[in-house]
Write a structure and sequence with these properties.
Length: 136
């Protein structure tokens, strides 16, 4: 479900490995997302720093202003552990995306939440869990 804020909408917010944009007939654009994920085994012994890529897809309606601010805060429980704020421009009637990367410290396995919002509007929450390391 898309959330609205001052006419803008967050269409999706996902943790990913890669994003690729390509033109197709029309002209139209295709967005290829690879490695969409909501959890991963710890890549190293604890403690370690994890730097995920979060992509946020945003739509501006035809009658929208075309300017906004994306805020993403990362939380462990109710504690805020990181924050990213980015202004953006998007042509009315079109889509844009923003990549957000934070460095998050993990002393043990557990979950964090990325809380995304446009212009102080409703929050879209994206959880991510670091699992214990895999024993070989």
């Amino acid at each position: 479900m898309a959330l609205r804020s001052a006419g803008m909408q967050i269409i999706a917010a996902l943790f990913i490995d890669e994003i690729d944009l390509r033109q197709v007939s029309g002209p139209a654009t295709r967005i290829d997302l690879t490695g969409i994920q909501f959890s991963a085994a710890s890549p190293a012994a604890f403690p370690f720093t994890w730097a995920p890529h979060l992509v946020v897809l945003i739509h501006c309606p035809v009658d929208g202003a075309g300017r906004g601010v994306l805020e993403v805060t990362y939380h462990r429980g109710e504690e805020q552990i990181a924050r990213n704020v980015q202004p953006f421009d998007v042509e009315p009637g079109k889509f844009t995306y923003r990549l957000v990367r934070a460095e998050l410290d993990f002393a043990e396995h557990g979950s964090v939440e990325a809380r995304c919002r446009l212009d102080k509007g409703p929050i879209t929450t994206v959880p991510y869990t670091i699992l214990p390391p895999i024993d070989d």
